[in-house]
Structures are given as C-alpha cells and as structure tokens.
Design a protein that fits this description.
It is built from 22 helices and 23 strands. By secondary structure, it is an alpha/beta fold. The radius of gyration is 34 Å and the shape is elongated. The chain starts with 14 loop residues before the first strand and ends in a 13-residue tail after the last helix.
Length: about 650
C-alpha cells in the first residue's frame, strides 16, 4: 500500500465502497489463488493443464474455420481433410506456443509480450500452411480461406481466454480490497508517459483504494481529450473549480521536469482544496515499469528545495578510486557515510572506515558489508586526535587516497568549547595531513565549509585555519601529496541540520524555532555534495580549495513554513513559528569566497576553484595554536582574531 500521505487542510471525504458482492469477489479470488498455487507447484500439472486448455480452443477454432468457409456446409472431401489435419495442426500450434514461452506464462497475467508471442506463433503456423498449399498437393493443406480464418480466430480466442482470466483476477482483487474501505479520488498532475502509466496502474489495481478521476496538463493538444477513459482538463489551476465536482482528495504529481517552484504551487493548490499531495520518486523508473504507483511518497521539503541532477564524470572517478586503498575519516557521519557508499561502488582494493562513534561506525559497516564489494571494508574505531592510533592505521593500511570528513561542526557547541574545535578541526587535521605526506598518500581531500569564509564562529575559524594549514603544507619541500579542500554549505537532512530539527519540532506539536526571520542558507543534497567532492578530487593537483555551486540561498523562515504545510498544518495557527534570536557564532547569511581568493572555473560547471595568493608558506603557528587551545574561551577568541584577521568573534557570552 501507499506510504503515509501528507494531508494538507481538511480532506474531501472519500467514498466508502459497499460490501455487496464481497463474497463473490472472495470466492473468485480464492479460486484463482488456489489454481495458481496448484499449477505453480507442480510443473507437470501446469504443462498438461495449459496444453489441454489451448488444445481445446485451437481444435474448436480449426473446426469452425471450415464451417465458416462454406457457410456451415463444407464439402465431403474437405470434411475428411479437416479430420486428417486437425491433430497435426493443433500439435504444431501447441509446440510453437510453448516455444514462445506461453506454457511458462501465468495465465491470469496477460500483456503485450504475451499477445506478441501468440500472434507470432499463429503467424508461423499459418505461414507453414500457406507453404504447403502453394507447393504440395491440394489435400495436403487447407484452403486459403480456412488458413486466414483459422489465424484470426486462433489469435482472437486464445487472447480472449487469457484476457478473461486477467479481468477475473483484477475484478476479484479490486472487490476484496475495496469492500467496506475508503476510496481516495485522485487527480493526476501531468498527462505524459508517466501520468499515463500511473492511471493505467490504478485502473488495473482498483484494490489500491485510489480511483483516478482525471488529468491536469497544460499541453493544448491533450486538453479536452481522454486517456484510458479519463478526461484531460487543462491547467492545474482549474483544480479550484473542478475538484469539488469530482470529489478530489488526493493529487499525484507525475511531471517529469517539475521545478521546485512548480511543485510548491501544486502543493499550495492541494492545500486550498483540502487534498493530500504525493509525488512519484523516480520518473524514469516508473515509465520503465521499475517502480509502480504504490511507491509514491508525500512531497518533502527536499522536492521544493531540489536542484537539477548533477552530471559526473564516472570514468575519471573510477580511475581515481579503483583498486586503490581509500581511507575515510568521520565515516559514520552524514557526508562520511555517503562518501563510503559512493567510493565502494567504484571498487577500491580496500575501504578503511575511521570513526570515533562506535554506533555510527557499526551502522555504516552493517550497510556496506551487504554490498557486492563489502568484503573490502575495514571499519576502525579511532579518534583522529590520537596521533599514535592514527599513525598505526596509516602504517598498517597504507592508504593512497584520504577523504577527511571528521569534524566538530555544531556552531553553538563549539562556541562554548572553542578549544575542542581547534584540537579536532585544525590541529588533528594538520597532524593527519603531515602523516599523509610522510606516508606517501597520493591525494588528501579535506571536507570544509562555507562557514570558513569571513568566519563569525569558532567552528568556521577552525576550518579556515585547517585550509590555511593545508595550503601551507602543500608548499613544503619534497611533498608527495596533493592536498585539496572542498567547501560547501548545509546538506539536506544531515545530522544536526535544520530540517531534522524542524521535523522533530513539528512532530511534537511545535513551536518551530527560527533564530532570525532574515536568515538564509545554501543547501545541497548529501549525494549531490558527495558526488561533487569525488569529482573535485579527480581535478586537484595540490593546494586548491574547491567551492561547489550551491544554487540560490534559501530563507530559513520560508523553509519552516513549507515544512509545516507539508505536514498538514497551517503555520502560526496549528504550529507556532517562534523567532529566538541569533545563537553564538551564527551568521545571517553565508558567503562563497574570501576577498583575496582568486575564483576560477573548472572543467565541471558545478565546481569552482579558489586560490589564496596571500598565504605564507610556514606552519609554525600550529605550535602556538596547541598552547592557545588549552586557554579559556575569551583568550582563544582573541588569539584566533590575530591568526585570522577576517574572523569576527561573537560577543563574549561568558560560557566556557
């Protein structure tokens, strides 16, 4: 059945199907189910039963073809010919039906493939009979009229037999599922191939509880016409007038290229008429038959904030990763997990998972071992600040590619404990990069953040210092490693991000908390960001900071309102939105690059390269930073301001 649907506003009442005739539905369904079980379990019985059914039909057809040819009074000579030919002709037809897979086919499932097989089998037999008629003596083959009639009647009777079984199965299932239940009346948004597939699926499986009532589509060539007997009404805005007449209480979006803005407009129309809104998860899969309509799901905030698919150079990524030892730190985090999934798909010789949190590591390890290359996964519980442990990992596994995703990323928490942010995000990262250089790692990719640009938080400042250390280490003499960093903004649904927080608050009945009505953020999906990280890794030669195209910034207040509406509530009526004020270290908006960074395009349209022309080549400041990290928060912030002049500390809160 369908996943739980969103209900926006009050639904128009569904129609309850009566129980009249449900006993008949049950009887037919039980008979067909029993027949399928008996025939399915015993191959010999199946073949004999199907052969007898087809033989009876084909024998009757061949007999009737002679009768029709002579108006039910065939000459005596042709009566004798009919008796002589009926057995070999029927046997030949049975042989060809079996050759085309019709004895293996489930009788009550009949589609175009079966129809094609039946036609080809009958065409072959008719062709053989025409050959006999043309080359052999008169009595060796039926007359031409009999051959034509036999072909037409054979195809018609066999297909009608199969179709009747299919209709009986559909009718019985429909009645059983709907008796006494509620029918949701569905308007399909989009009358293209996907919409047609949805309508066909719903009409064939009435027991799903969803009854299609029509299409809404802007194509003028379709408006006023019908598809599978369902009318096409025109633009979706006509729902406001037509929905009450049709009793629509559910919308299914099947538009193949619907923008987030358009999806939002349709959701709003659904809310105004009191209809739930669903969306098909994968249009290409549905059109190809891989996904059915019962895999539809509620519209989510990701659909409204969605972006176009990212085209990646899979060959270059495969060349980077295949048959190489790859190490991922922070493997249990949101980005780390997706990195591991995508890396493993490219068949590294070994994938080393480094994670401090035991449960997070266990979960991703259990997922990855199910993969066809799961035996290449090596999960290790290691704290990256433990230099001896991480050195042992490098000595034992000899990684060739390192993706460093481990970090403390929660901005307010790091404001309270700035020393921890420096120890994990800066000092441990620098130590890890030094170790990578000493171990001969080919490429080291640091996962950074847009919060490192003109930072206002300790977390952002610690990441900026990690970037500076990376570029300085790149300039070290005899350095064999290509160090690079990739910056991006918030990822949809990552742990600790705003979307899971909003979902939890909505589930609890509110309020939904927004720190500032004008706050904006850039958002990407986790697979999109991870794929671009891998792509950037193929491009870097050392010292680059890559920034990903994150689209347009999204206002957090608008996102909160949309999520409340998608959950079936009205903002500030059912669920309160509460503005709490900026938290320590937070910005109103994020930036893309520093003023002294050179911004250039790369071969990939969604990846840009930055280089800082003013960085010094020494990492001596790291030794001072170790002493600074042990001090009190006010002293740490003051020291960071000296190291990163563009850092604007949050007003001292007194916490520590």
């Amino acid at each position: 059945m369908l996943a739980e649907t969103i209900q926006i506003g009050r639904p128009v009442g569904g129609r309850r199907a009566g129980k009249l005739g449900s006993a008949g539905f049950d009887a037919v369904h039980q008979f067909l189910a029993t027949l399928d079980r008996v025939v399915g379990r015993h191959g010999g019985i199946r073949w004999i039963a199907i052969a007898l059914a087809y033989a009876l039909q084909l024998g009757v057809v061949f007999w009737l073809a002679y009768e029709l040819r002579w108006d039910f009074a065939p000459p005596e000579d042709f009566v004798m010919q009919r008796w002589l030919l009926i057995v070999p002709i029927v046997v030949c037809k049975l042989f060809l039906l079996g050759s085309f897979g019709q004895f293996r086919s489930v009788l009550s499932y009949f589609g175009l493939a079966d129809f094609r097989a039946v036609v080809l089998a009958m065409v072959t037999v008719s062709g053989l009979m025409f050959g006999l008629w043309f080359f052999a003596e008169t009595q060796a083959a039926p007359p031409r009229g009999v051959i034509v009639m036999d072909f037409v009647l054979s195809v018609a009777l066999v297909c009608s037999f199969r179709l009747s079984l299919r209709l009986a199965r559909t009718w019985s299932m429909s009645g059983r599922a709907r008796a006494g239940g509620w029918e949701r009346r569905v308007a399909i948004i989009g009358a293209g191939d996907v919409g047609e597939a949805v309508a066909k699926d719903l009409l064939q499986r009435g027991g799903s509880g969803m009854v299609p009532v029509g299409f809404f589509d802007e194509d003028p060539l379709l408006v006023g016409r019908s598809i599978h007997g369902l009318p096409v009404f025109g633009r979706v805005e006509r729902l406001l007038q037509i929905a009450p007449l049709l009793g629509v209480n559910e919308l299914v979006i099947t538009l193949t290229e619907a923008s987030p803005k358009r999806v939002k407009e349709i959701v709003e129309l659904g809310r105004r008429i009191g209809a739930a809104t669903l969306i098909i998860p994968s249009f290409t899969q549905l059109a190809s038959g891989e996904v059915r309509v019962d895999r539809s799901r509620p519209v989510a905030i990701e659909d409204l904030l969605g972006r176009s698919a990212v085209n990646l150079d899979g060959d270059s990524i495969a060349r980077l990763l295949r048959d190489r030892v790859v190490l991922v730190t922070g493997a249990g985090g949101s980005i780390g997990r997706e990195l591991c999934r995508q890396i493993l798909a490219h068949r590294p010789s070994r994938l080393v998972l480094v994670e401090q949190a035991e449960i997070a590591l266990f979960e991703i390890e259990q997922e990855l071992v199910q993969h066809e290359h799961g035996s290449r996964v090596v999960p290790l519980i290691v704290d990256i600040t433990d230099q001896e442990s991480i050195r042992h990992v490098f000595l034992r596994n000899r990684p060739e590619i390192v993706f460093h995703a481990a970090a403390h990323k929660h901005v307010p928490l790091m404001e309270r404990q700035p020393g921890e942010a420096l120890k994990n995000n800066t000092l441990a990262t620098a130590d890890l990069m030094r170790l990578a250089g000493e171990s001969g790692v080919a490429k080291f990719v640091l996962i950074s953040t847009d919060k490192a640009i003109n930072p206002t938080s300790v977390m952002g400042c610690s990441k900026r210092l990690a970037e500076i250390a990376l570029q300085n280490l790149q300039q070290a003499k005899a350095n064999p490693t290509a160090f690079m960093a990739v910056r991006f903004g918030n990822v949809l649904g990552s742990s600790g991000s705003v979307i899971p927080t909003f979902r939890r608050q909505i589930a609890q009945g509110g309020p939904v908390t927004v720190t500032h009505p004008e706050m904006t953020r850039y958002f990407m999906t986790i697979p999109e960001a991870t794929g671009l990280v891998l792509q950037a890794a193929t491009m870097g030669t050392g010292g680059e900071i890559f920034i990903l195209d994150m689209g347009e910034p999204v206002k957090i207040l608008d996102m909160a309102r949309q999520m409340i509406e998608l959950s079936g509530y009205e903002p500030d009526v059912d669920i309160e939105i509460k503005v709490t004020g900026l938290r320590p270290g937070e910005k109103l908006y994020e930036e893309l690059c520093h003023t002294n960074e050179l911004h250039t395009r790369t071969a990939h349209p969604r990846i840009f390269q930055l280089r800082d022309s003013e960085l010094a080549g020494s990492c001596a400041w790291l030794d001072d930073l170790r002493q600074i990290a042990a001090q009190e928060p006010p002293a740490i912030r003051a020291a960071l301001k000296r190291l990163v002049p563009e850092y604007t500390p949050y007003v001292e809160s007194g916490g520590g």
